[in-house]
Amino acid sequence: MKTLIVYGSKYGCTEECACLLRDELGETDLADVGRPHSVSLDAYDTVLIGSPVYIGKLDKNVIQFCNARLATLTEKRIGLFICAGEPDKAIEQLEAGFPKELVEVARAKGYFGYRIQLKKLSLLDQILLTGVGKRRNEEDIRRGAIDDFAKTFLQEH
Ligand SMILES: Cc1cc2nc3c(=O)[nH]c(=O)nc-3n(C[C@H](O)[C@H](O)[C@H](O)COP(=O)(O)O)c2cc1C
């Protein structure tokens, strides 16, 4: 059985982390919940779900996907990960943001770092960003955390 990584990403950081994770795992498919297509979960025994954090909340498409497929997802091997600019609060935000049924069954919860590129942001996002105390380009993608997360799922096979 295969692994599916489902993710949302507004400016590409979570997408890049999802790709790095896939490269560690081998036979793994990727699905961007921001693109309209329906994902069948039948072929997968493992589903890894990733989201960025915006103003304290996870990506709404990711949460909609989780809620719509909750019963099926809780039968799978689940891993949850986020990208967020506040490392100290990251796991707390993950646990508060994903449905509790998934947090309870998750075999790994990962914080993969973040990236902020001011030039890419919409004007509104530039304004909102100052509210979370960030004013510069920043990048801290945590490959070690991605490797550790991947190992959890490789070891269990
Ligand atoms: C407008 C805006 C608001 C953000 N709000 C938060 C936040 O509340 N908490 C946090 O930890 N990170 C916050 N971040 C940082 C993002 O989570 C981080 O840049 C992440 O890597 C974005 O992922 P993406 O490129 O996949 O969309 C915010 C970033 C932006 C641009």
Protein architecture, described:
With 157 residues, the protein is an alpha/beta fold. It has one domain (2-155): Rossmann fold. Helices cover 39% and strands 27% of the residues. It is built from seven helices and eight strands; from the N terminus they run E-H-E-E-E-H-H-E-H-H-E-E-H-E-H. The chain has helices spanning 13-25, 60-68, 70-73, 90-97, 100-105, 123-131, 143-155; strands at residues 2-7, 28-32, 44-54, 57-58, 77-83, 108-111, 113-116, 138-141. The strands form two sheets. Strands 1, 2, 3, 4, 5 and 6 form a six-stranded mixed beta sheet that branches. Helix 1 packs across helix 7. Bound molecules: flavin mononucleotide (FMN). Flavin mononucleotide binds next to helix 1, strand 3, strand 7 and helix 6.
- The average pLDDT is 94
| Uncertain stretches | none
The CATH architecture assignment turns out to be 3-Layer(aba) Sandwich
Helix content: 25-40%
DSSP strand count? 8
The level-1 CATH class: Alpha Beta
Q: What is the CATH H-level superfamily? A: Flavodoxin domain
Biggest sheet overview: 6 strands, mixed
H/E topology pattern: EHEEEHHEHHEEHEH
CATH topology title: Rossmann fold
Radius of gyration based on Cα positions: 15 Å
Our estimate of the beta-strand percent is 25-35%
Counted by DSSP, the helix tally is 7
Shape: globular
Through-space gap between termini: 10 Å
**Helix/strand structural class:** alpha/beta
Bound small molecules, deduplicated: flavin mononucleotide
How many structurally independent domains?
Answer: 1
